[in-house]
Task: structure prediction
Amino acid sequence: MPIAAAAPPESVPVFSGFDYVRIDEARHRAYAAHTASKRLLIVDTTSGKVTGQVDVGPMHGVVVDPATGYVFTGNGTDRSVSKVDPVAMTVLATVDVPGDVDAIAYDPGLHRIYADQDNGGHVYVIDGTTMKQTATITMPSEDLESPWVDGNTHAFFQNLADATAYAIVDPQTLKITKVVKTPQLKNNHPLLYLPVSNVVLVGGKNAILSAYTPGGEHLGDVAVQPGVDQCNTGATGAVAACAGNGIVTVVKMDGKTPVVVGKIDTGKDISHVGIDESTGDLWVVWSDATGDYVQRLHWSP
Result:
């Protein structure tokens, strides 16, 4: 069940430095935070070509509204979140928040954006329709990573890197209902929810990915690459693609146990990945001394 390069790397106008990646399977687009360029990168996943970049600020987080195709961006030290029309390549609205923004999550059922503070302990809650901040959630951590939403129950999960834990937040009260300790992990980083298997996957920089029930019961672990950074899933939510230390892996659940079902060592400085589950394509971005690049990989189940 290998992962292999499906096309040569595509050059991106050079400004250097990427962060989170997301895929819109329905509209055949890949998005990446081209942080140092202060732009949202847009790629046509059919042709593999870069179609443009939208100036939003030094962004980190990116999510897609599946209903409209609009893209939300977390704009780093600009302390804002933007709504972008990727077809017109224009910023439709921007809301300021009190702190720097890292990763963001989106609940399409509630039209709600969660933006976690970079180097701080707050999550900013934003109405994605009005683009107004509606609440602030205080977390028991100053190092927040990889927020995610369970689209069925609307529960919100926030990784707490320096607390060796993650938090579960009630969507109605916006209060933390449980802090789940993850002692087997070090420096928690990736987190995502897989609806097909109804599990939360949480990863540590110490090369372990752990599965939990939505309520926080530990199910099992699997060894992945050291320094694992972003894990992502597609529209179905059956598998997770994880990147870090130049290695890309695909993980799925085998009963209550996570297992690696695909792996490639790219030899590049790759930390972020998106997956199109309908095609098996994986999209990665990286920067090196020769330039900035996006590339299509392919996983064969």
Q: What stands out?
A: The two ends are 5 Å apart (CA to CA). The chain has one domain: 3-299.
